[in-house]
Amino acid sequence: MDISDIATTEYVELEAESNVGKARSIFEDQNPKGIIVTKAGSYEGVVTQKQLLRSHIEDHTKVATLTKSAPKVERTDNVRDVARSLIEGGTKVAPVFESGNLWGVVDEDLILEAVLENLDTLTVEDIYTENVITIDEDATLGQAINQLREHGVSRLPVVDEDGFLAGVVTTHDVVDFATRNEQRITGEGDRAGDLDRMLDLPVYDVMSSPVETTTLGESVRDAVEQMLDNDFAGLVVTPEDDDRVVGGVLTKTDVLRALTYTEEEVMDVQITNINLLDTIGREDIRESIAEIADKYQQMQVRHAHVRFHEHKEKLRGTPLLQCAIRLRTNRGQVAGSGEGYGAEQAFSVARDKLERNVLEIKGIESDREYEGQLLRKLGEL
């Protein structure tokens, strides 16, 4: 299936000279996956809602300031390649070109709707993300925003004082809440003070509740249908026997990533925000992760995902990056993360943490094997 069967010519377009306030209004009123930015009729890039949340830019600033590049898709590209492009570009929408001209757009929903009937072969357990970041319900809205920015995620499960699932706060929730409340702030009042008070509100006042959940045994098709029907970007994953416990999350991005899994002999490595690579390449990353897998041959790596996230801090022009590595193996998921100036340093720190986590898993397994051997010997006495 190529993308011409999926893409649409209907999309939201904004001139690069428009102000950011207009972009915020479009997201509030129309809730698009992204806005295509043009300059004098020519394609410039995209703006996403997540970018608006992460920025401290005033509404009067030009949209061009926030515009980021997105992978350009040809109408004849196949679905798997386009899914990979969206993931590695760290975006939910991409422009579609025909003969060098902007023809339309494709987004994650259009792809998922097209492949829905093929998702019955997967369960949530096959592709969900474990060890997610959570936030307490009495944490402040400002703390939630910092968590979303710091970890480069779009949703945080909210837990109560007992650690049980109480709600979820998303990028969309924060933007929607902030926009509605900013409209109430008049020029006569203390605008800075009002904004500070808004950021001090507890997450409990902003979160969505009750939470839409799914379980490990549910089919990915059913989970995706649930997301599409309710316009959710993800679901909280809970154990079969207790829907109060946060076991992980399943997002549309997780499903897109699964569409790109290959059966090749070479380990499949996906890199989100691949444009941040500088002195290190995809093959360097693949070989480095393969070295870890080769050391512990009982651990078979089925898929590796490496995500880079850029912070505002820089050192002599080199940005501070966060790198998160997640391996999906026959022993479950294992991850490691770290920060450094430039992609190579950030990856190196994350790789070291990953290997320590692999060793910890091996140590636990060894302890269990020893315990089993000891019990068997005691049984023989």
Q: Would you kindly provide a written description of the structure presented here, covering whatever features stand out?
A:
The chain contains twelve helices and 16 strands. It is an alpha/beta fold and 381 residues long. It has three domains: 105 residues, CBS-domain (Roll), CATH 3.10.580.10; 134 residues, CBS-domain (Roll); 109 residues, Ribosome hibernation promotion factor-like (Double Stranded RNA Binding Domain, 2-Layer Sandwich), CATH 3.30.160. It has a four-stranded mixed β-sheet. The chain has a three-stranded mixed β-sheet with strand order 1-2-3. Helix 3 crosses helix 10 and helix 4 packs across helix 10.
What is the typical, i.e. mean, pLDDT? Answer: 83
CATH superfamily label of the largest domain: CBS-domain
Spatial order of the strands forming the largest sheet: 13-14-15-16
Helix/strand/pairing category: alpha/beta
Structural Rg: 22 Å
Measured by DSSP, the beta-strand proportion falls in 15-25%
Total separate domains:
3
- Roughly what percent helix? 25-40%
Largest beta-sheet characterization: 4 strands, mixed
CATH architecture of the largest domain: Roll
